[in-house]
Design a protein that fits this description.
The complex is a heterodimer of chains A (315) and B (232). Helix content of chain A is 14%, strand content 29%. Chain A contains four helices and 24 strands. Residues 304-315 of chain A have low confidence and may be disordered. In chain A, the strands form five sheets. Chain A has an eight-stranded mixed beta sheet with strand order 22-15-16-19-18-21-14-23. In chain A, strand 18 and strand 19 form a beta hairpin. Chain A has helices spanning 36-45, 258-265, 280-294, 305-314, and strands at residues 2-7, 11-15, 54-58, 63-66, 70-76, 81-83, 86-87, 94-96, 101-104, 111-116, 119-120, 149-152, 160-162, 172-176, 193-199, 203-207, 222-223, 228-230, 238-240, 247-248, 254-256, 272-273, 275-277, 297-299. Chain A has two domains: 2-162 and 296-314, no CATH class; 172-283, Beta Barrel (Cyclophilin), CATH 2.40.100.10. Chain A is of the alpha+beta class and 315 residues long. Chain B is of the alpha+beta class and 232 residues long. Chain B has two domains: 13-79, Gyrase A, domain 2 (2-Layer Sandwich), CATH 3.30.1360.40; 91-225, Cyclophilin. Chain B contains five helices and 13 strands. Chain B has helices spanning 28-40, 67-79, 106-113, 117-126, 222-225; strands at 13-15, 20-24, 48-51, 55-59, 91-98, 129-134, 141-144, 159-162, 166-170, 173-176, 181-183, 186-190, 211-216. In chain B, the strands form three sheets. Chain B has a seven-stranded mixed beta sheet. In chain B, strands 1-2-4-3 form a four-stranded antiparallel beta sheet, with helices on one face. A two-stranded antiparallel sheet of chain B has the order 8-11. In chain B, strand 3 (48-51) and strand 4 form a beta hairpin. Chain B is elongated, with a radius of gyration of 19 Å. The two termini of chain B are 33 Å apart. The chains are: A alpha+beta (315), B alpha+beta (232).
């Protein structure tokens, strides 16, 4: 049982939501889904384990053909998508029949996650995630291409749908980093930012007023957690994401809270944003809320009113 | 050129977001020893440990773990670390073709240090260096300390692509790019050997504690050294 990549989209990779932790002391990035919350949601919708491999599409989606029946769900960026020509909603798992074609289009947001019940990808260093820069994991360490075939194991499951609300709008929330005292308190929060051209799985560069530390512009290299905001000597902050280097040598005034790291990964070059400071307690509460939102699922049967309405309105 | 220490002083725990903390330490040996202790004992709160030059980053799940508990565990472990220096790692020899297309910054390094290019190569290959920590990218080892005569600043504008195998220097350290990577260090040569293999354990050829020397080779001998070293 396989799915075939008919058209890969600009950059579609195999990722596991949690990436490849535990190898950082050999320089290996954690990697994994750039928006891990959305990736976990997609997996839950089709009955996969949270950390199962799935597809991360960038800016626009792939076209996939299935040679056997399975369940599929899309989460993250809410892009237009069709299954055999009929609209395919985000955040709802749908059964697909053998021979079906799923076309994922584009729309607002930078990254969509396509979860397939029972998708099997071999692990390298403990994870199926693709490390594009060094070139290992996923599909031969590279982005998917037309003609690639991925294995699907038979996995009886029940389609789920998500009842929650879309991610919070408003400023991206930050808490202090180790060099907070080197910078003016409002250096990051007192100004509007725009996402620069350099925006990828490693990080997002922010354009706006230049930020200068009151002390050194370089530091002895330190480990960088998800969401760390590094300020290189050019004064343009970089929010570090999944494929960030394991260590960095520039001061870190702040860190994006875990609950908002995925929101940063959904920004596109040119998007505008603001940063706002919150307390550690607020950051932890936001994470608790994000975890609770992930539980907001219900199974639905194929003969439910919802499904009949869906078929009726398009069939 | 030596980068400054963390504020405000060593052995203090700095918040680093709600899911991580950074402990300032005396040096890379202490960071490696503390990380090894956490990993060996499978500290129940530990999600990740990243030793740096003078610090250890630890990651934890803030919904399950109290940061104060992390701090007390780290400080207790630090107090009970053995005082003797850790066992020496393996001794490595890294073949390097210096200069030319392989070392585009060699001439500039010679100019900056007021020496001939031959002198720069001799100084780089003369001493024994130690792997201080792995970081930046898979298999990238931070090597120190370079002789004082060889210390140059990073490039003002980093390269978007530094070719695989590039041997570079910046400040007191040398490093080798295991893959095509962006980089701001000055490239003086290139090695034909592979430094990272995700199918091996450990996946990095150079690991903290190893010592190494660079061995100048002729570009014509490149093919003889290509591939993974026999003593991985």
């Amino acid at each position: 049982m396989t799915l075939e990549v008919v058209e890969p989209g600009p950059l579609t990779t195999v990722q596991a939501p949690g990436g490849r932790p535990g190898w950082q002391r050999f320089g290996v990035p954690v990697g994994g889904a750039a928006d891990p919350w959305s990736a976990r949601l997609a997996n839950r919708l089709v009955g996969n384990a949270d950390d199962a491999p799935l597809l991360e599409a960038t800016l626009a989606g792939p076209t996939l053909r299935f040679d056997s029946a399975t369940l599929v769900a899309i989460a993250g960026a809410a892009w237009r998508a069709t299954l055999d020509g009929l609209p395919f909603p985000a955040n709802h798992a749908r059964p697909v029949r053998a021979g079906a074609t799923l076309r994922v289009g584009t729309g607002a947001g930078a990254r969509a996650y396509v979860a397939v019940a029972g998708l099997v990808v071999q692990s390298v260093l403990g994870s199926p995630s693709t490390d594009l820069r060094t070139g290992f994991g996923g599909q031969d360490g590279r982005a998917l291409r037309a003609g690639d075939r991925l294995q699907i194991a038979a996995q009886p499951g029940h389609p789920m749908r998500w009842l929650g609300r879309p991610a919070a709008s408003g400023p991206i929330r930050i808490v202090p980093g180790p060099h907070a005292s080197w910078f003016a308190p409002d250096a990051l929060t007192g100004t509007a930012w725009r996402v620069g051209e350099a925006a990828d799985r490693a990080g997002v560069r922010l354009e706006g007023e230049h930020v200068r530390p009151g002390r050194d512009t370089e530091i002895a290299s330190i480990g960088l957690p998800l969401g760390a905001i590094q300020v290189p000597p050019d004064g343009r902050p970089i929010v570090m994401l999944a494929d960030r280097p394991v260590t960095g040598g520039y001061p870190v005034p702040a860190c994006v809270i875990r609950a908002d790291a995925g929101r940063v990964a959904q920004l596109r070059s040119g998007d505008e944003l603001r940063l706002a400071s919150v307390s550690m307690e607020e950051a932890i509460e936001a994470l608790r809320q994000a975890e609770a939102d992930l539980e907001d699922l219900e199974p639905f049967s194929l003969t439910s009113d919802d499904e009949l309405g869906w078929i009726g309105s398009h069939g | 050129m030596l980068a400054s220490r963390l504020p405000p002083h060593s052995r203090a725990l700095h918040p680093f977001g709600e899911a991580a903390a950074l402990l300032g330490l005396a040096g890379p040996e202490e960071a490696q020893a503390l990380a090894a202790s956490l990993v060996a004992d499978q500290a129940p709160w530990l999600l990740g440990a990243v030793p740096g030059l003078q610090s250890l980053l630890v990651e934890f799940a803030p919904l399950r773990t109290d940061a104060a508990g992390v701090e007390s565990d780290l400080l207790a472990r630090l107090a009970s670390l053995p005082a003797e220096t850790p066992a020496r790692g393996r001794q490595r020899t890294i073949p390097v073709a210096y200069g030319g297309d392989f070392g585009p910054d060699l001439e500039e390094v010679a100019r900056l240090t007021g020496r001939s290019t031959d002198d720069v190569v001799r100084l780089h290959a003369a001493g024994e260096l130690r792997v201080l920590f792995d970081g930046f990218a898979p298999g990238f080892a931070y090597l120190g300390d370079l002789p004082k005569q060889l210390r140059v600043p990073r490039l003002a504008t980093p390269r978007t692509r530094t070719p695989r195998g590039s041997v570079a220097i910046a400040g007191a350290m040398s490093g080798i790019y295991p893959a095509d990577l962006p980089g701001g260090w000055r490239v003086i040569g290139r090695t034909p050997i592979e430094l990272f293999d995700p199918l091996r354990d450990p996946p990095a050829y150079l690991v903290p504690g190893d010592t190494l020397r660079f061995e100048p080779i002729a570009a014509a001998d490149w093919d003889r050294y290509m591939g993974e070293p026999a003593d991985w």
